[in-house]
Amino acid sequence: MSNLQIALELLCVGMVTVFIILCLVVLIGNIVVRFVNKFVPAEVPKVKFPVRRTFEISQKMIAAIVGAVKTVSGGKGHVTKIERR
Q1: Distance CA 69, CA 63 (A)
Q2: Which end of the chain is less congested by CB atoms within 10 angstroms, N or C?
Q3: Which residues touch 2 (CB under 8 Å, ≥6 apart)?
């Protein structure tokens, strides 16, 4: 047998082996996912309703925010609304 023939046999055997192993990985992964989805219950997230809270903001804080906006925007920006998040 020539060296080229041995190299091609090794190439084919290696490619088939890698293909079979990757197929097994995909098959086992799908089986695990289906098993977990069937037998392990999903956590039910608690629904949080947004709470509207009013807050007081001092005049000094408003002046600081307006001054910062004017400084950063070069006098082009204007504060129209201040919200707390």
Answers
A1: 10
A2: C
A3: none
Contact, 78 vs 62, CB < 8 A?
Answer: no
Per the listing, tokens 């047998």 go with 1
> Which amino acid does the sequence have at 60?
K
- Residue whose C-alpha is closest to residue 35's, from 23, 24, 47, 27: 27
Tokens 């890698």 -> residue: 18
User: What sections of 1-85 are H helices per DSSP?
Assistant: 3-39, 59-73
Token reading at 59:
């005049």
Residue 53: closest CA among 25, 11, 84: 84
Q: Would the pTM count as exceeding 0.70?
A: no
User: Dihedral of CA 14/16/20/26: which sign?
Assistant: positive
